[in-house]
Fold:
Amino acid sequence: MTAATRRPTRIAALNARRCENTDTELFYGDKEDEQKEARTECRRCPRVVSCLRGALAEEAWGVYQWGVHGGLTADQRNALRAAALLGERPDLVQARSLVRSRFRYVLEDGIRDNAPLQVLAARISAEWMPVSVLTVRVAVWWLNGEGSLVRTKTPGDTRGIRDRVLDDFVPVMLRLRASGARQRDVAAYLGAKLSMIASILSMLEQEQRDAVTAEQAVAA
Ligand code: SF4
Structure:
């Protein structure tokens, strides 16, 4: 084989999708350890950025999504769609560089210490260049971290998770709902349990209906 014929083969091998040579079922498993294994394959895949972009572009709201694509689960991809409703978009190329640079260790330490995403973004921005919380969130997901907006808390914060959601996230939850997000999309965006978010949203939306009814009664 000449160098001329060897070169394209090597390039093709370097660019090959990891899932081409892996059990496809792994990418559609519903067990957490299967999803983690698939996501680890994605993290090593040269196509991870374009694959995730493609999945986000092709999957539509309201359609049942499943499987791991671009290193993220269906819920994590839903979280990114919900973020887009708020005008937030991750820089996927920057997220990729975070997991391949020395910042990978900053992120892994943060995952181990359960550090809030905002703290990780601030650390990286101070040392390197400005990076958004959402970009850090994608990098944390690619490293198999939880990347929840509500499950981590800053030291000294003694509030329970429901109180923190009610204190800190009501405006964003209502904005998402007003933009067409389903309850499960809001839960995915926050990284919280659907049952808790559904119960809080039902309460908030009932309060809104009651307020409208009271205004109409006053106006009548
Ligand atoms: S990033 Fe996409 S192409 Fe690569 S292994 Fe994962 S699912 Fe396959």
Remarks:
- The chain has a mean pLDDT of 87.
- DSSP finds twelve helices and no strands in the chain.
- The pocket of iron/sulfur cluster is lined by residues 17-19, 27, 41-42, 45, 47-48, 51, 69-71 (CB under 6 Å).
